[in-house]
Amino acid sequence: MELSDALYLSKQVLLQAGVPSPEADSYWLLAHTLEIPKSELLTLLTLGYQLTEAQAGGFKENLDKRASRIPLQHITGSAGFRNIELHVGPGVFIPRYETEQVVEIAIKILSGLPGRPRVVDVGTGSGAIAISLAKETAADVYAIEIDAAAAEFAIMNIKSLTANVDLRIGKFEEELPKLRDLDLIISNPPYIPLDAVPVDPEVRDFDPQLALYSGADGLEAIKELIALAPVSLKSGGWVVLEHADGQSDMVCELLLSAGYEAIRAHPDAAGRLRAVSAKWRS
């Protein structure tokens, strides 16, 4: 089978399966099957490369998995996030582009602080936020993860990316108070209401429920974080919280009622309010 034929077949199969990005996923599946960078795949396409029988078989297997709506990242075993490549798979939340922008909010705050700020990422999952902050700032970075399966991926990523992150495994209600004088607490917590089941099978069937759902209104974890954060924050310390589209006003009100200052809602690339930053009173 010629590479271009495999690409065309993949696009058609994924399109019929309802995959949101059939063309992009087809390129990534082929690159993964051939164990080459995507840029090299484009070169092979122009040269009329012929897949070997083994390669064609491997590609068919990966294509069938993706057509059944297994996440692309579970097939490739990796997910890009900002400037890093993370190990991911069943049992850990796949980091999203929106969270990359939430990290940028934290980086801007940290850039204005002297010395080595102290930061914790609550609910670190794969370690995406914590590792990015450790790589891109001068902060001392901690991370908390309750789920053992997700923590295994965080441990793997911290090691493979040689990131200086102190990972704590346990409930954040127990682990966060052990950290004091923090300059910033950041989290992409679960924020989906229990009855708002996601439509996309990749999310609904494969992301850990612990990373998705948070009470009847989706705000249970955020409420707990807002209430508990002052125990660990220094005076004038910050919180940065990701939330769902449509929750911004509620999160801002919760922060205001709890005594936080300088509350600001942040839009994502599409203009949707998807994160809030706030300072604990000085």
Automatic annotation (TrEMBL):
* Methyltransferase small domain boundaries: 116-191
Q: Gene3D superfamilies per the record?
A: DNA helicase RuvA subunit, C-terminal domain (1.10.8.10), Vaccinia Virus protein VP39 (3.40.50.150)
Q: Which GO terms describe its molecular function?
A: nucleic acid binding; peptide chain release factor N(5)-glutamine methyltransferase activity
Domain Release factor glutamine methyltransferase N-terminal as annotated: residue spans = 9-77
Q: Which UniProt keywords apply?
A: Methyltransferase, S-adenosyl-L-methionine, Transferase
Transferase as UniProt keyword: yes
Name of the featured protein: peptide chain release factor N(5)-glutamine methyltransferase
- Species for this entry: freshwater metagenome
